[in-house]
Amino acid sequence: MTPLLYASSGVAVFAIALYRIFTAGDVLRKIIAANLLGGGVFLILVAIARRPAAGIDPVPHALVLTGIVVSVSATACALALARRLEGTTLDDGDDGDDGSDDTEVAGRGP
Amino acid sequence: MTGAIGWAILIPLGGALLAAAAGERASRWIAALAAAATTCAAIGVAASVARHGPSRHPAGGWLAPLGIELRADGLAATMLLTIAAVAGLVAAHALADRSRAAACARSCPLWLFTWAALDALVVSGDIFNLYVTLELATLAAVGLVADGEGPDAPRAALRYLLFALPGSLLYLLGVALIYGEHGALDPATLGAHVGASAPDTAAMALMTAGLCLKAALFPLHAWPVLAYTRASPVAGALLAGLVGKAAFLVLVRLWLEVYPATFTSAAGPVLGTLAAGAILWGSLHALWQPRLRAVIAYSSVAHTGYLFMWFALGTRDALAGALFVVMSHAAASASMFLATGAIARALGHDRVEGLTGLAHRLPIPFFALALAGTSAMAMPPSSGFVGKWLLVRAAFETGHRLWAAVMLIGGLLAAAYVFRLLRRAFLPRPAGEPIAITRSSGGHAALALALVAIALGLAPGLALDLLRGGSAP
Fold it and tell me: What is the pLDDT of residue B7?
């Protein structure tokens, strides 16, 4: 019963995040929603890994690990862009931007 | 040439890492070498498929249930060559532009990453690995968009990423459900087991929906258009020409090898309807775009429709047609983006009303635009004609008259939007209006790409034979 509970909570998390990624106005909320989308899928994969007959299947765990790497890279990429978009000036001037066009761009999300 | 398939991925990947670490001058040399070597590897794979038929290479010696299998078949070989031709010529364009050496050094790791990801995608024989490669291609593409001109580029890149992510995660959810049901990821095993049960149908629907979002099929087509118009010409050429086709190629693999007939016969008409919407909507919008780049972006929306038409038709000939459209549009749209870049650089803008009388002043870019345009409007003997002719014939043969009519109307609309640009360029310049042209160079790579699009149509047998090389066991 427990795997089914985990899997259905994974589906629920995925559905909520999918709704938010399209409806949230704020960039940061969208990025968090994108993370939750991945989290929902990983929850389902981990639930799937339990096989009643053969114990634990390692393949879904490997998939989750790979998925986490992809998800972290995508999040890093999105955060870097969001930072440039919002023109946050808290930086120590080391993020490689030329600084000319990233200070005046105001805006809350695409 | 068993190693060539691995080199087609490893060379651009290694080149990208080296180029990112190296200095400005060195990185351009590394990029040039990597581009040449990757092209050789792609030719090696294609030669091996043409001579010995399809082959499979377990990566690292691990076999199918656990390991990742790389496959060289007709589809993979043809797409490797297409990617090499388009990415190679776009790379040549970027590297030849001495006045933008710094920008080129900054972006060359990104286009090498894109190249590696796409090569890996077309040879992957594992539905999870397809997710990883799709995501790699997206991330590299986001970098290319962010590297574009103007303050709007980061916004366009973020929007691109935030639409592409749900697409690939919907696909991944489908993969998870499929694995939960069948405990396998390789298409051969799945093809024998996936059926019409509720979890299987849900998984296939999720994967298909995710890939349609990722391919920007109508009505979810607006997000890449913004990126195509904000990105640099080099990025636009790679995105519209190659990255935009990746999700379609994944769906083709699934459709042929994994999905059972019960699912494809139900989903085909749905995709056909969306494809028809894409052809009409994209072509109509291309008619009145004020900027040259936006015309080409909407033309890409319409061409995605032609590709997806195959799912409604389903025959082998239609598939050859759709893949021919992939090759033809990859070369033609890349050519148009580079030509537009050359025009925009000479004029300082790419507004369509501002093009009056410029065909004589910028002959090479406009010649490239016209040649690539004949392929977009499917005029014989261009490659666009071969692809769309195969599709329209298949539509008549299978009794889909409506879809045939939509594709023919799409061709007429394409003629209208291409001639709108060319008419403007060949009109006499109003007297007394000075032409401010800063430089009339560039556009040679655009012309070469347009010639590729035409040449494919002159000898379609070569590409079609290579494509069929994959269907033999």
Answer: 92
pLDDT at A88 over 50: no
Residues of B in contact with A7 (CB under 8 A): 180
Is A45 exposed, middle or buried (CB count within 10 Å of its CB: 0-12, 13-18, 19+)? Answer: buried
pLDDT tens profile B119-157: 999 999 889 999 999 999 999 999 999 988 777 888 899
The model's pLDDT over A6-48, given as tens digits with 9 standing for 90+, comes to 889 999 999 999 999 999 888 899 999 999 999 999 999 998 8
Indicate the domain borders of chain A. Answer: 2-86
Q: Are strands B55-58 and A55-56 parallel, antiparallel or unpaired?
A: unpaired
Q: Does B198 touch chain A (CB under 8 A)?
A: no
CB-nearest to A77 from B142, B166, B169 is: B142
DSSP-derived 3-state class of residue B56: strand
Question: Considering its fold, how many domains does chain B have in total?
Answer: 1
Closest Cα of chain A to B201: distance in Å?
A: 16
Helix then strand then coil, in percent of chain B rounded to 5, is: 80, 0, 20
Residue B84 lies in a domain: no
Q: Is residue B67 part of a domain?
A: no
Is residue B422 in some structural domain? yes
**Residue B183 region by backbone torsions, left for phi larger than 0, else alpha for psi between -120 and 50, else beta:** left
Please give, rounded to a whole number of angstroms, the shortest distance from the CA of B53 to a CA of chain A. 31
d(CA B152, CA B158): 10
The helix/strand/coil state of A51 is: strand
Domain limits at B312?
293-473
A55 versus B227: the higher-pLDDT residue is B227
In a domain, B457, yes or no: yes
Report residue A55 as tokens.
């114990």
pLDDT single digits (tens) B292-310: 999 999 999 999 999 999 9
pLDDT at A96: 39
* Fold (topology level) of A2-86: Helix Hairpins (1.10.287)
